[in-house]
Specification:
This protein has helices at residues 4-11, 61-67, 146-158, 161-166, 186-211, 240-243, 271-275, 329-334, 338-349, 368-379, 384-389, and strands at 15-16, 22-23, 58-59, 74-92, 95-113, 119-136, 172-176, 220-224, 250-254, 281-282, 286-288, 299-305, 319-325. The chain is of the alpha+beta class.
Length: 391
């Protein structure tokens, strides 16, 4: 018995086929743009999510300059990354299913400042990095609780001599449902399950930061990407209402977004207004009320331009989408105070430099501390060859 796949096939009474192994992220294989598909269900955001109901864009230059005179609002930066692989096909009951595996890396970095508000150090606060394997749910032929079964399988794999000798450890054995709807594929269901695991890891780290009282009104966290978490069927933090308070001092900042999802009061797309944002200006904050399915958690959403348009390559290069969960009942109905939206935006503008120009094609949309956190996350990955050969 040599490899993980041999052991899995024997333990679950399946048959592997020694299929071609490859990384989805580097091939022409089907891939998914996660984090945006749920946005198709947006309703038109006509309600303001801030106290001043002004349809015009707001100039943040003066407020950003004033914010630079004091300590920065953002001290912590969170990013998650994953690399996903097709490692084999396996047969159960005459049907063939893909085995998907992945490397997950999620980290929070922090920044220390001197007493005179000059930079002191950038450091790792907490990280989680581990490999996962995702099998079809039919691998559990014993019919016992799926969580128990696949957790036991994970423990057995980690006891294999060649795993222990290499110093590897599988973090989790996940499972995906095999019923397909619409244009779904089994491979994409496996990839989505690994993506959900990464999101759950991000939520776990935010919860840890809150438990240590590290997030306060003076020490905010920037989470790279959306915090509009879609409903999840798995994980310890699948119910958004139960973790909402963890995000009181968290702001989601997205480099990529669909600008057509924001509508103005005339029911027209705001994509043009967003593209034409002057430098250091923001849109009004609008409210998104996703409804009961999302746990009745409302969001404030707005956009800001942090780079000069003439130096970028697309109309939306240099524009960030900013999101904030609304906490109290008053916020959920009336939104944030405009002063708070301005404060958050001004501090985000002040995070734009230095840039990662030349190192990343997304340089115009990067905030440098977030870029550094992302680089740290990706540095924790093993090489594709080393990881694939594990199987």
């Amino acid at each position: 018995m040599g490899r993980i796949l041999d052991y899995i096939a024997n333990e679950t009474n399946g048959k592997c086929f020694t299929s071609f192994k490859y990384c989805y992220d580097d091939s022409m294989a089907p891939n998914i743009e996660y984090g945006s598909s749920h946005e198709d269900s947006y309703i038109n955001m006509k309600e303001y999510a801030e106290s001043i109901h002004d349809p015009n864009v707001r100039d943040m230059r003066t407020i950003a300059h004033m914010a630079m005179q004091g300590p920065p609002l953002f001290k912590f930066f969170l990013d998650g990354s994953r690399r996903v692989y097709k490692v084999d096909d396996i047969q159960y009951d005459k049907k063939v299913y893909p085995i998907v595996s992945g490397q997950i890396s999620v980290a929070c970095c922090g920044r220390e400042m001197n007493t005179d508000n000059t930079f002191k150090q950038f450091y790792k606060v907490v990280e989680e990095a581990y490999p996962v394997v995702c099998l079809p749910i039919t691998a559990n032929e014993e019919g016992i609780d799926n969580g128990v079964y696949f957790n036991n399988l994970c423990n057995k794999i980690n006891q294999l001599p060649f795993i222990k000798n290499k110093g590897y450890e599988i973090g989790k054995v996940l499972y995906y449902l095999t019923k397909l709807e619409g244009n779904e594929t089994l491979e994409n269901k496996g990839i989505a399950r690994i993506q959900d695991e990464m999101i759950d890891c991000e939520k776990r780290i935010v919860s840890w930061l809150m438990s240590k009282h590290l997030l306060t009104h003076k020490q905010y966290l920037i989470k790279d990407g959306s915090i509009q978490y879609k409903p999840m069927k798995h994980g310890d933090y699948k119910e958004l209402t139960r973790i909402r308070n963890n995000y009181r001092h968290v702001v989601g900042v997205s480099k990529r977004f669909n600008p057509n999802l924001m509508k103005d009061n005339k029911n027209q797309s705001s994509a043009g207004q967003i593209a034409n944002l002057p430098l250091y200006h923001r849109t009004p904050a609008f409210m998104w009320k996703p409804g009961e399915e999302w746990g009745n958690v409302n969001f404030a959403i707005w956009y800001v331009r942090i780079r000069e348009r003439r130096y970028t390559t697309t109309p939306y290069s240099g524009i960030l989408k900013i999101e904030k969960m609304l906490m109290t009942g008053d916020e959920a109905e009336n939104g944030l105070e405009t002063d708070e939206v301005d404060m958050i935006t001004a501090n985000i503008i002040n995070e734009r430099n230095p840039v990662c120009y030349g190192n990343d094609v997304r340089w115009a949309n990067h905030l440098y501390p977030v870029y550094m956190t992302e680089c740290f996350c990706k540095s924790r990955f093993k090489s594709d060859i080393s990881f694939i050969n594990l199987f």
